Fold:
Amino acid sequence: MQNELQTTKDFFNSVVDKWDNICFHDTKKLDLIFSEIALFKGARVMDVGCGTGILIPRIFDEIGDDGSLVAVDCSERMLKIAKSRYQFSSLKFMCDDISCVKFKENYFDFIICYSVFPHFKDKTAVLAHLTKALVPGGKLCICHSESREAINNQHAKIDERVANDMLIGADAVKVILDDIGLTPVTSIDNECMYVIIATK
Structure:
């Protein structure tokens, strides 16, 4: 597992200088995703796999100065860019393996996994670990602003280190969510985007 994590980390560190040109984030799709997530002022949020920080300003637009955000990524080079761009007073960055990083239990109102879910090697274990950090009624949000087919095709072609990091179908994710005690409230898996939101 550690070797797999290092391979993923090496990939993202190697592409960081061109990453924002490789990945296109459609503003209208992100608007729809955030309307489904429904953040609120003062919320405590975790951004898993934050990368160069694409979601950070959007999150703070909705949670305001009274909210807080923990942005986590395994790539120190991705985090370096995100840190250089954003300095909100209630923003904390963490460079760590999300599968075992220590968090307070029952703490976060929202945990957002944007454009990162395919890279979880043991998806059930990671989601179960994250669920412990959610408050009762909190939301776990798995989302992409592209379709599952587009994401999987991109991974298959871009680099052998992520060629097998596949985005699984919504029905398969629902089985995982049920197993770990989460209730799906939103499920979009179509030719435009991928959004699964569940509550604890």
Q: What stands out?
A: DSSP finds eight helices and seven strands in the chain. The beta strands are 44-48, 68-73, 91-95, 108-114, 134-144, 183-189, 194-199. The domain at 2-199 is CATH 3.40.50.150 (Rossmann fold). The CA atoms of residues 139 and 199 lie 5 Å apart.
